[in-house]
């Protein structure tokens, strides 16, 4: 029974004739993984079946070569994945710093987005207390959605701090949210006002 059948097809590296070398194989692998050359990837896949047959027929040279090339493939794939992860982490960190800067410069929306990230643990450690503080800053700096979030906290819909529900305070934040042009704040303020109106 062939061991090769259990291995994904992309791990079958081609032997393109007698003169095929490890260097040529490595070049194809690099083109397939790093530059995402569809032609190189298709060549690897297509020729893989031929290599499988040669190895199954007892061609030890083909088996030895595919093992070496398979190791190269894995190494390059892992290196590329690590590099892309590093770029992604750097990009996320850069965005967080930009949001912090925006918030410090008085941009309420920047404070709110940063608060959302801390509330959900998106790219930063989860911290609901910090999220609450950032929503407070955002609201003070004129971001309607931040005020809406504070309304949700005081209405008991968003558990960011330990506090008993305070419908009057919630209404105040929803009204401020509405004045700042955030429509859901207007709708929530209207709903909260209904029971008290006669």
In a nutshell, what does this entry contain?
With 198 residues, the protein is an all-alpha fold.
Which structural traits does this protein have?
mainly alpha, 8 helices, Serine Threonine Protein Phosphatase 5, Tetratricopeptide repeat, single chain, disordered N terminus, 198 residues
CATH overall fold name of the largest domain: Serine Threonine Protein Phosphatase 5, Tetratricopeptide repeat
Give the N-to-C terminal Cα separation.
Answer: 83 Å
User: How would you classify the helix and strand content by structural class?
Assistant: mainly alpha
CATH class of the largest domain: Mainly Alpha
In what range is the share of β-strand residues?
A: under 5%
The count of helical stretches stands at 8
Q: What's the name of the CATH homologous superfamily of the largest domain?
A: Tetratricopeptide repeat domain
Q: What low-confidence regions span 5 or more consecutive residues with pLDDT below 50?
A: 1-19
Going by CATH, the architecture of the largest domain would be Alpha Horseshoe
Order of helices and strands: HHHHHHHH
Overall geometry: rod-shaped
Main pleated sheet: none
Let me know the number of strands: 0
Into which percent range does the helicity of residues fall?
55-70%
């Amino acid at each position: 029974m062939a061991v090769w059948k259990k291995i994904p097809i992309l791990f079958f590296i081609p032997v393109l004739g007698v003169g095929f070398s490890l260097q040529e194989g490595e070049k194809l692998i690099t083109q397939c993984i790093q530059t995402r050359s569809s032609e190189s990837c298709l060549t690897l896949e297509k020729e893989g079946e031929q290599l499988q047959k040669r190895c199954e027929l007892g061609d030890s040279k083909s088996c030895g070569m595919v093992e070496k090339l398979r190791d190269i493939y894995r190494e390059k794939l892992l290196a590329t994945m690590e590099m892309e992860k590093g770029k992604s982490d750097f990009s996320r960190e850069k965005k967080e710093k930009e949001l912090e800067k925006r918030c410090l410069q008085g941009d309420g929306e920047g404070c709110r987005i940063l608060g959302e990230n801390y509330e959900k643990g998106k790219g930063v450690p989860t911290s609901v207390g910090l999220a609450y503080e950032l929503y407070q800053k955002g609201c003070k700096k004129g971001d309607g959605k931040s005020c809406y979030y504070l309304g949700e906290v005081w209405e008991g819909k968003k558990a960011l701090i330990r506090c008993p529900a305070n419908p009057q305070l919630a209404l105040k934040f929803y009204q401020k949210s509405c004045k700042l042009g955030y429509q859901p704040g207007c709708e929530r303020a209207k709903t909260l006002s209904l029971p008290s109106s006669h």
